[in-house]
Design goal:
The chain has 253 residues and is α/β, with parallel strands linked by helices. The chain has six helices and seven strands, in the order αββαββββαβααα. A hairpin with a 4-residue loop joins strand 4 (80-94) and strand 5 (99-114).
């Protein structure tokens, strides 16, 4: 009878082990939802700083006239593009085996364009110069909006690929669940950040492409030179007030 009991005990042990292994099998991973969205805040306008103050604004645009030419900054678009990423993970636990399976359930990336236009106080609203500068700065904002739209799919794809690479994680010890959750989350967040870094590099190129010498000259030429126009008007008025010279023809009176 002892031999039979040992055989039965061994069978029960194997069966329990097989059941435990089967119970701790991770489920098939469901497709994670990856949501990448964006919006733009209303444009903020600042007409309280003078030219000297704007000259000390930290901007990444290079002087198209060269470093040896000193120019005044009459307007600047100091808008920001920021992003926020959130990763939601799910898990299933097997308390009897003290293990867990983890996967990424949802990723949400929100990109925000927050534009601000500052125009030197010397050019108040309603003046020709103010309008010319404003038109130029709006080009910078339009470039930012187009930039985000162009990169949206790349950000979405980067997040989706990162989720796929993470896949189903486990079975892992329940005691280490938070550690693996952090690793999974950081992997996706880093993938999104790397793609956003590409967006910021492209932004710098696009913004610099707007601030060309030709564009600056165009803005300067939109409005007539007030000093020159005033001088020409004064000269014309003076000429009109002076008596006309009469030349006598010889032999006549």
């Amino acid at each position: 009878m002892l031999g039979l009991e040992l055989v039965m005990a061994g069978h029960l042990l194997w069966h329990a082990s097989a059941s435990a292994t089967q119970a701790a099998t991770c489920p098939v991973q469901k497709n994670a939802r990856v949501d990448v969205k964006w919006h733009s805040e209303p444009i903020k306008y600042d007409n309280n700083r003078n030219t000297n103050s704007l000259n000390h604004t930290d901007i990444d645009t290079e002087n198209p006239y060269g470093t040896h030419v000193v120019t005044d900054v009459n307007g600047v678009m100091s808008g920001k593009i920021t992003f926020d990423s959130n990763v939601l993970t799910s898990s299933v636990r097997f308390p009897a085996e003290a293990v867990t399976c983890l996967w990424i359930d949802k990723v949400v990336v929100t990109i925000v364009v927050d534009p601000t236009i500052a125009i030197a106080a010397e050019y108040p609203e309603g003046t020709c110069k103010h309008s010319a500068i404003l038109e130029h700065e709006h080009k910078h904002i339009a470039a930012d909006l187009a930039l985000v739209k162009d990169h949206l799919q790349a950000v979405r794809q980067a997040a989706s690929q990162a989720v796929q690479k993470v896949g189903m994680v486990g079975p892992k010890p329940i005691a280490s669940a938070q550690e693996y959750k952090d690793k999974m989350t950081n992997y996706v967040l880093n993938a999104v950040k790397l793609q956003m870094d590409e967006l910021y590099l492209d932004r710098s190129k696009r913004q610099k492409a707007i601030d060309t010498k030709e564009e600056y000259d165009r803005v300067e030429g939109v409005c007539p030179d007030k000093a020159k126009a005033t001088q020409e008007a004064a000269e014309a008025e003076k000429a009109a007030s002076e008596p006309s010279a009469i030349t006598a023809i010889p032999g006549t009176r």
